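A quick aside before the break. I want you to see a complete sequence-to-structure record at least once, exactly as it would be stored in a machine-readable document. Don't worry about memorizing anything.
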Amino acid sequence: MTRTRRVIVCLDADDDRVVKGVQFRALRPIGDPAEMAARYERAGADEIVLLDISASAEGRETRWDTVRRTAEQLFIPLTFGGGVRSVDDVGRALRAGADKVAVNTAAVTRPAVISEAAAWFGAQCIVASIDARRDESAPSGWRVVIHGGRTETPLDVAEWARECVDSGAGEILLTSIDCDGGRSGYDLALTRTVASLVTVPVVASGGAGSADHVCAVLCDGGADAALVAGIVHDGVVTVGSIKAAMAARGLPVRGEIIRGAA
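That is the input. The structure line, written in C-alpha cells, reads:
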C-alpha cells in the first residue's frame, strides 16, 4: 500500500506569538498561533505543529492557553511541543486538544519519559523531537542538541533516534539546526540516515526553500512528511503549490490540491 505523504506547517511560538528566525535565532513575530493554524488548515495543510520554542530554555511553564486556543480552531491533527517535562505534561497537552505531543529536551534529560508516556497514552501520541547539528566526531556525523539548539549533548543522532523508537516513540520529528531557516534545502543525508534506521514515520524539518525541496526530502530523503514554516509564512510558496508539485512527482497527497491558497 502506497503511503500518503504529508505537508505539515510548523508554528514556532514565543510568548503567545508565532515567530521565525534562522537557526533558532534572530526571531521576529509574525502572527497569532490560532489564527495562522486555521488559515493553514483552509489552505490544505495535513497537520499543524505548534512548538513553544522558549519554554525549556527559559525553564518556564508551557502556555497551555495557546495550545487550547489553537486546537479549538482545527479539525486536522495538532502536534504540540515545548516545555513538556513529564507524563503529566503530556496529559495536559492532550487534554488541551493536542493529538500528539513532541518531547525533546525532557527525553534527553530523562529518557524514561518516552516509555512512560507511550505506556499511558499510546505510541501514536508520542513524537520524539530531535534537533541535530553536524559534528564529524559523532559516529553518524550529527550530534543531538537541546534547549532550542543552545546546548550540545554527547548523544549521536542515529543512536538516539533508535533509542527513542525502542522506548515507544511513534514518530520522529527531525530538525537540522544547520539548515534551519537557510532555505537551501533539507539535509537529505541526515534525514536518509535516520529514516533508514527506524520503523516509524520521520518528519523532516529545517531548510525548506521551495516546493522542489519538499519533493526532494520525500522522494530522496526517505521522509514520510515535510515540515514547512518560513516559506509559507512569507508567501514564497503556498501549501497548495507544494502539494501540486508533489502530485506532479507522483507522490500521493491528501485532499484536494488548493493551488491558490495561502
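Two observations worth writing down. The CA atoms of residues 29 and 246 lie 30 Å apart. The longest strand covers residues 6-14. We'll return to this after the break.
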